[in-house]
Amino acid sequence: MKVIVNLYHIKSTNGLYFYALDYIKQLDGRILKILVRPKLYEHIINTFPALTVKICSWVSLVRELFSADETNMLIYTPTPHPMPFLNNQLIVMHDFYPFNYGKYSTLKKLLLKISLASSNCRVAYINKSEMLPSILSMGIEEKRCLFAPNRFPSKLDIETRSNYKRGAILKVALVGTDSPKKNYDELFHMIVDYNVTDKFIFYIYGHENKYYHDLCADFKSINISIINSDTVTLEQFFVNIDILVSVANHEGFGRPIAVALLLGVPCFLLERKVFKEFFDPGAIFYETVSEMVLEMISYTTKELPEVNFLPSSEYIMAYENALAVLSQN
User: Fold this and answer.
1) CATH code, residues 155-298
2) pTM of the prediction?
3) Which residues, other chains included, contact 195 with Cβ-Cβ below 8 Å and sequence gap of 6+?
4) 34 and which of 5, 218, 236, 239 could share a cystine (Cβ 3.0–4.6 Å)?
């Protein structure tokens, strides 16, 4: 069975985008067409020059998906956007942030429930600790669900940090600028309150947008820089980083955290179910942002902790199983 990949709902090269790439790269022999928004076209066509990539409007997307369903093709949508009434599709749930927060969250959740009920599609989830219970609570039968986690990079994929040298000021990595769910405001308020703005340089890996500019305007005393994720790989980004910090409250996985740990970069994370699921043991966990910042301050004058991390074989096998399911449909 041929596969139509629906990337229409991915608007930038964010975590959803890279999640999708890790699956598409393993399925390109079965893929008939990839559907995208105009903004994503160049990225996809440059990555998959041998595949057919089509720019869609909403109307043409609906036409393409219904045509695919009529010809018994599998529609693979690596985002939480099922097309109503089409059964032969697999969608992916990453986190519930869009359905619980924001101006249109209630409407989004209602549309999701209607689409899931009318389509009878398969529903993939990327973590067991939060997404599976949330999906089941919506009345979705477990037999419709598929565990399809992110691909963990192998150590063979990752360059060494042979050029890494620690400086006098701690270089801190923050990852993502997609929304306030990153919770950087709370972190920066703590840095200001503890009067340690001169102890750290914060490098945010993501895109220059309103959220980033608002942070810079609100915290002028803090040294904040953006590293464009379209031009710098995660491996390149972490070459001279001292620690990674995440104070996010709603994450589905944390691809940059996985790369950082495999590179030996200490990762300071809040105690969240998803982070514990994937990165314990390996990362260092804190109950509060205040506790984390105090520990960050202590490491400005002492050796950084060593990192020992290996991904669980359970999740590596689950990724392979999800690929097999996609290939067999």
Assistant:
1) 3.40.50.2000
2) 0.90
3) none
4) 5
